[in-house]
Write a structure and sequence with these properties.
Blueprint lengths: L1 E12 L2 E12 L3 E5 L6 H8 L6 E6 L2 E2 L5 H7 E4 L11 H6 L14 H13 L15 H14 L4 E5 L7 H18 L2 E5 L3 H7 L2 E6 L2 E6 L1 H4 L2 H8 L3 E6 L2 E6 L8
Helix pairs in contact: 4-5, 5-6
Bound molecules: adenosine-5'-diphosphate and magnesium ion.
């Protein structure tokens, strides 16, 4: 059974067609990375899969049509970490991660001992023990990204939707976060659907990539088939060299026409 099955997805926002007939299959346990130029519709695609934006066409999550899932049930299957999560001012790490338990807490009810221990476990898993009382605004970018992941994991969902999880991080912290996600994927059998801007890093972690352009799938397949000089020139208007790396193709930008003095 696929973790995600999207057919002929269309999204209109403000009268404009943002996604136009997107098909996407993500197998259970797979890591798929969506790339594409700014404004291609990557965030919108993740939001649609997460049930956060109205769409036509069909979306199934673990074999169940998304439209048939109640909000709480969907939240137990899929957890979204948006591009810039809203951080409530004054909120401390423990309470923020506890928000991930919302689908398990009765309306107007209180969190149970199970919810509290789930949060403690996740904090420990993500090396955040000792951060529980810290306000989110005081954390570094890498720490904050781990807290966002912690909230998603506390939710107990098996499908993680990560919108540019590494954009604000230096390359060392980018690798830390992606290694962590990959480790969690193996340990907990998670499925990962993410967007990413850095193409070389994207290709090193993804099983398959989807190149989105103007709301349509322009190319899809293993990194070696999507990260090609031709496709990147055509859809990003970028001049690049693609060289073979240890874990997949590496994309090196090349200045188009250096000016002579
Ligand atoms: P990406 O993540 O690939 O950069 P997005 O999915 O954020 O792209 O946006 C795709 C397009 O949809 C952009 O042109 C953006 O301006 C437009 N868009 C996004 N949200 C809205 C909205 N709420 N109303 C109108 N247009 C929107
Ligand atoms: Mg985006």
């Amino acid at each position: 059974m696929s973790a995600v099955e999207v057919r002929d997805l269309r999204v209109e926002l403000g009268g404009a067609r943002i996604l136009d007939g997107v098909d996407l299959t993500v197998a259970a346990g797979e890591w798929i990375t969506v790339i594409g130029p700014n404004g291609a519709g990557k965030s919108t695609l993740l939001r649609a899969v997460g049930g956060l934006v109205a769409a036509t066409g069909s979306i199934s999550l673990l074999g169940t049509p998304s439209a048939r899932l109640h909000r709480r049930d969907r939240a137990r299957i899929v957890a979204t970490v948006p591009q810039s999560p809203v951080v409530p001012p004054g909120m401390v790490v423990f309470d923020y991660v506890l928000l991930g338990r919302t689908p398990y807490i009765a309306p107007l009810g209180r969190e149970s001992a199970t919810d509290l221990s789930a949060v403690r476990e996740v904090l420990e898993r993500l090396d955040l023990t000792g951060f529980g009382d810290r306000e989110l605004v005081t954390l570094s970018g890498g720490e904050r990204q781990r807290v966002f992941l912690a909230r998603a994991l506390a939710q107990g969902a098996t499908l993680l939707l990560l919108d540019e999880p590494t954009t604000a991080l230096d390359i060392g912290h980018q690798q830390d976060v992606l290694e962590l996600v990959d480790q969690l994927r193996h340990d907990h059998g998670l499925t990962v659907l993410t967007t990413m801007h850095d193409l070389s890093i994207a290709g090193e972690y993804a099983d398959r990539m989807v190149l989105l352009a103007e709301g349509r799938v322009a190319a899809a397949g293993p990194p070696s088939e999507v990260l090609t000089e031709e496709l990147l020139a055509k859809y990003y208007r970028a001049r690049v060299r693609v060289v073979a790396g240890e874990h997949g193709p590496l994309v090196v930008p090349v200045r188009p026409h250096p000016r002579r003095p």
